[in-house]
Amino acid sequence: MSEAYRNSPQKEERADARVQHLWALYEVGQAISASMELDQFMALVVEKACHLLGVEQCGLFLVETRTEEGPALRCRQARGLPEAYSQRVRLGPRESMAGRVIADARTMWTGDLLADPRFSLTEETRALMAEHGIHGTLAAPVMAGGRALGVIAVYRSAGVGFLPEEADLLSAFALQVGIAMENARLLAESQESLGHARALFEVSKAVAGSLETERALHLIVQKAVELTGVRHCLLWLREDGPPGEGGVRPRAQAGFDLSVVERLLLRPGEGLVGRVLRERRPAWTSDILGDPDVPVSAEWAATIRRLDIGAMLGVPVEYGEVFAGVLTVYRPRGSAFTPDEATLLWSFGAMAAIALENARLVAERTKAQVEAMRAMARAAADRILNPLNIMVGNAQLLALDLAPDHPGHQRIERILESGQRIVGVVAQMNRVGRYRTHEFSPGLFELALDDATEADPANPLPPPSAPK
Length: 468
Prior knowledge:
By secondary structure, the chain is an alpha+beta fold.
C-alpha cells in the first residue's frame, strides 16, 4: 500500500465508515438484547437493519416448519413493504434467495433477484416482488448454535446493488439477532421451568398439608387442572384383583359427573389409561375416539362427545414402589400435548403418589387408633351401664316407698334425669364401638367419626332398667 493512500482522504473516510458501522452494531446489539415481546423484537430488528444498511425495505423470515428437504420460511415482519407481503409470503426449502441462504448458511446478494437464474421463485412470489419493485436483494442467515432460525433480507430498487462490506455488516447484524433470539429462548425456558418448579412446590405443599384422604384426592385433581390449564381431569385409583388383572377406577374428578365415570373400571392394556397402567409411563392422544389403540365403551364415548374432550394425556401416579393409580387430563379434540407437559404432569403425579402414601399411612395409623377406641368405648359402655342400671333401679324403688308429698321425690327426679343423660353418652359410645372404617381403595380409608356418634334410628338403645 502506497504512502499516498495511507494518508489519503479515502482511507480516512473508510475508517470513519467502519467506526460508524461498529458503533451502529453496538447500539443494535444493546437494543435487541433488551427484554421485550416477540413482536416488538421483530419490529426493532427490521427497523435497525434498514438504518444500518441505509435502505427503506427489509423483511425478517423465520423458520416455520422443518422438513426432510430443509426448513420452510415465513415472513414474520416487514418494513417498507406492503402488508400483503408479510402476510402471504411463504418460502419452501431452497426457494428464493432466503431459502438458499438458510440452506447454505451463508450471506448472498444480487442486483436483480427477478432476473438472477441462481434463485427459483414461485409465480405468486415473483408477482408480488415485481408489483412492489423489489429487485436488489441482500440476505443473511440468522443462526444460533449451528441451528438456523431465519433470514434477514434488505432490498433496493433495480440497478442498485450491494457491496461486500454491506454483506459483512448485515452478516454481523444477523449474528447478533441470532444470539439475542437464543438468549431470549433460553431465558423463557428458564422462567417457564422456574414457574413450573414453583407451581409443583405449591401443589406438593397443598396436597401434603391435607391429612384427609378425600380432601387430598380433590386437591390433586384441582392442582393438576391449574398446572396444565385444562378443564377436565380424572384421578383413577387402583383396585386389587388377581395377579395382572387389578384395574383402576375414577375416584376424583374435575368437569365430569363422578356418579357416571366412577362405574368405569379399566385394566392393564385397556385403552390409554390401561396402557399407562401397564407400562407405567405417560401416554397421550389427540383424538380418543379416532385412535384405534384407544378402545372406549359406548357410554364413555357419549360422555366424550358431550363434553367435547377428544385429546387426552395420562401419567402414572407413582413414586418408587408406590403405585396409586393414573392421572388423566383432557382437551378438545385435535389439541396437542407436548413432551414437556407430559414430564411436568408426571412430576406432579409422583408428588401426588407421595401425598397419597402419606395419607394411607396416616389412615392406617388412625384406623388402628379407631379400633382401640372402639374396644375402649365398648368396655366403658358396659362398665358404666351396669352400675347405672342398679343406681336408676334403686332410685325408682325408693320413690315407691316415699309418700307422694315427700320432698325426696325432687331429688330422685334429678337422679333419674342425670341417669338419662348418662344413657345418651353410653349410646354414643356404643355407636362408636360399632363403627367400621370404609376402605374405598386399597390402603385408603374413609374415616367419618362424626357419623359414628349420630343416633341410629334402626338400633335405639333401651333406657336403663330397674333391677328385678
